[in-house]
Structure formats: C-alpha cells, structure tokens
Design a protein that fits this description.
The protein is α+β, with helices and mostly antiparallel strands. Helices cover about 20% and strands about 25% of the residues. The chain has a single domain, classed as L-amino peptidase D-ALA esterase/amidase (4-Layer Sandwich). The chain is built from six helices and 15 strands. Strands 3, 4, 9, 10, 11, 12 and 13 form a seven-stranded mixed β-sheet that branches. A four-stranded mixed β-sheet has the order 1-2-5-6. The chain is globular and about 70 Å long.
Amino acid sequence: MADTTRPSLREYGIAIGELPAGPVNAITDVAGVAVGHAGLSDGPVQTGCTAVRLHDGHPFREKLPAAVHIVNGFGKSVGLTQINELGTVETPIMLTNTLSVGTAATALVRHMLERTPEIGEATGTVNPVVLECNDGAWLNDIRGLHVQERHVREALDAVGATVTEGNVGAGTGMSCYGLAGGIGTASRVVPVKRRHHVIGALTLCNMGRLRDLRIDGRPVGVSIASRLGAERDSRDQGSIIVLIATDAPLDARQLRRLAVRAAGGIARTGSHFGSGSGDIVLAVSTAERIPHTPPADPVTTRRILHEEALDPLFRAVIESTEEAILNALLAARPRTGKHGNTRRALSEFADLLGP
C-alpha cells in the first residue's frame, strides 16, 4: 500500500487521466511487488537506496519478462545490456545515486549468492540491476561515497507493501523541477474484455526546470518561480528512473512498447529530457515466471495479450507515470544539504494546487 501519512494529489481534487487507480494507488497494487528504503540524511549527506522486489518467489530461479527503454542515455546504470538481450530480469531492482552503483551492485550480488548456491558453480553468473540518478548536483556530498553495502541490505530487508514517497531512500537527496524530489508511485486498473489488469509505476525523480512544471496541464511552476522571485535552474538537467510493473501477460517486446509510453507521462509534467539527463524506463510483467532451468521439453507455451488489447495499457502507463512524479514532489519535504543548499517542497505552495 502507499504511505498514507503524506499528502497526495487527490487530496487537492486532482485526478490524473481517466482510468481508475488501484486500491492503494501504488506499484504494490501489482501482486507480489514490494518496496523498501534505506536513507541517509545528516547535513551534507543526503542520499540512500531503494529496493524493489518484483515477486515473492526466487528471482533467479523464476525470472520475469522485462524490457528497457532509454529515453536519454546520460546514465550509469548496470544490468541493462542483458535485459535487452534476453528479455528477462533475475534480481530485485536497486535504485541509488550515480557514484554508488558499484557498491549497490556488489551488495546485490552478495544477496543473490547467499540465497542461490548454484550461481557461479552449477550454472552461470547473475545479472544485478542497479539504476541511478545524480543527487550530488545540489544536496548530497556524492564524492563521500556514503552508501555502503549495509544500506543496500537494509533496503532489501525492508521491502513491503507500504511505499513511502518523497525524499526517502534513493530519493533522499534528489531534486525535481527545482524543488525537493525523490520517490513517487501510482497505479491504474485497466479493463481488458472480462478481465482487469493492473499497471503500477514507481519513479525516482531528479529532473526538470521549475518554470516548466505542469500539474494536470496547468503551468504551476511559473507561479511558484514567480513567488520565489528567481529561477535558479536554467536547464532541464538531471535524471528520472521509471519502473513499470504489470500483472498483464506480456512478452519482452510488448513490455518495451509499454516502456516507451512512460516518456509521455514524464513529458506531461513538463520535462523535455535535457541533453544532460539519464531517463530510463524498465518494464516488467509478473504474470508468467520463466524457469532458469529448462524443462525436459524445451518448447514452452506462454500466454500474452493480443496486440489489439494493449492500447488501454499504454494509457495506464502514461497516467501512472505522470501521477507518480507529481506524488513524489508533493510528498517530499524541504531539504537542506551540502554547502547549505536548500530545496523547497511543493507542499509549501499548496494554495496553487487546487483545481
């Protein structure tokens, strides 16, 4: 479930799009998905990591179909090449800051080795997936390499159905549209014939220029910038990571089609994917698990949706991505970091948010 202690857009009468949200309007509305955080917030140290478990089984022995779409490739993530080649994901997903990717990858490998004795012995190695944004541009002492393996373990151990949003975990020191940024989530329920499928989005938001911020189409950022009396950010720089999970039966090719649509949700909030940004989308289906060990008969049959049924899922990706970004902004609290740099919070301008 989503964290109910922080405000959401819907409390201000703002409902993004036309599809209904899931029960708790979070990526965890997709059964089996769980999220955990470990954050460090002390003076110039404003950083952390976030873990996303994709199902409640063994991720290496029971892989999931997955696809990656790179909107703009100014990023340092690991594990994407194998996902593009094989169309599967086999570990939890870690989010952190740019210079902590190596630490997070090592910790994730150790986590998998402890639980999977056959890795590197009776079978091949494992592909850790770590995605990042740069929190060192304004708030975090990124050169200090403060995220340690124990923090990654803490996030992995903390995974659960409640998703805390805002500047927590990997989002602790992130900035978004010149304000405090971080983690956001949202979901949509999609009717497909006589069934319903869930699309969930989780975003790590660290991008955008304040004057460009739009909420449900309204140029709120212009009003905030005017009230602050100055525009500090002259460029749309930074990054965003979007994780899309769904219980709809899709193969890797179809998941890439979904991942591409997340860019529409990002753009609706005002970003134009500046040259210095790393904007990456990872989409996963939980409907069909793929065994690591091939069966006796290697010819397998898997269910997938017909292409004509994908249109409402495309809409769900756009709507849930847009709302997840705005929820991250609204849940974030004011933050002071290195060199006394500060970020105001969107919630301080609540009078501008009403419909």
